[in-house]
Amino acid sequence: MNYIKVFAPATVANVSCGFDIFGFAIEEPGDVVEIRRRDEPGVVIKDIFGDGGRLPRKAEKNTVTGVMLHLLKHLGIKDFGCEVTLHKNMPLGSGMGSSAASAVAGVVAMNELLDCPLSRTELLPFAMEGERIASGSAHADNVGPALLGGFVIIRSYAPLDVFSIPVPGDLFCTLVHPDIEINTKDARYILRDEVSLKNTISQMGNVAGLVAGLMMEDYDLIGRSMVDVIIEPVRSILIPDFNLVKQAALDNGALGCSISGSGPSMFALSRGVENARKVGEVMKATFANAGIEATSHVSLINKGGPVVLDRN
Prior knowledge:
Blueprint: E1 3-13, E2 22-37, E3 42-49, H1 63-75, E4 81-87, H2 98-113, H3 120-135, H4 143-148, E5 151-157, E6 160-165, E7 171-178, H5 184-189, H6 197-216, H7 219-225, H8 232-235, H9 242-251, E8 256-259, E9 266-271, H10 273-289, E10 294-300, E11 307-311
Parallel strand pairs: 3-4
Antiparallel strand pairs: 1-2, 1-11, 2-4, 2-5, 5-6, 7-9, 7-10, 8-9
Helix pairs in contact: 1-2, 1-3, 2-3, 6-7, 9-10
């Protein structure tokens, strides 16, 4: 095989109460990576589309190629040569798992081009290195679902223990991106190092309730459990009119609403596609009242993860 093209999806991380341990994939948007082999050794970036020239072109400093270099080193392959093209279909700093989609598409494409020496699960630590390149933290709540699909839980980082749980068939995500940018490093910097015992107990209850609600297909329990008393109160100040947008979603049928990843994107979960679409419209309208344009995506939970679009 000399050429491969792979799509990896956007993701929602944290999912309200599950900071750095919950995440799920959606059907679109997502990034696309193309790799073409060449005779000369080395991984080089041929083109990047959709980034406005902001992403680094050096292979070791770019998320998409950095993960490839880590994988090749792990496999002991020194003479491999290829050129990489990245199609960025999500805004940078969007809270939609943009860097994770690039990392996952890149590492899956390279693994496929090498005839799949590693399983998808075994690729996760390499995808996480892409997050380290992008934000300084090798977290898995975006790359996990982007790579494995579905609703993913990270039980532990040391040792790494990641698994998926089932979700209700009529559960839809509305993902709304306001036209502003929040740097992931900045969004992590403002978080507190310690939390109170009271808030910890409350958060633990909501984490347990959300997992149970998803697995039992109890939509009311899902909604009651989508409460974040630790991260959302701090990060929400970075998103203009956050409380108004959230309340508009809840008033129009959303089970729950919170920040997607580091923001500024916000997500809501709803029962049924029509409810999810309505929620998206009122969230966009509320941002518009603040003079902020926004786009929305409505999707089931994407259980498949990356897709090979072409190969030869």
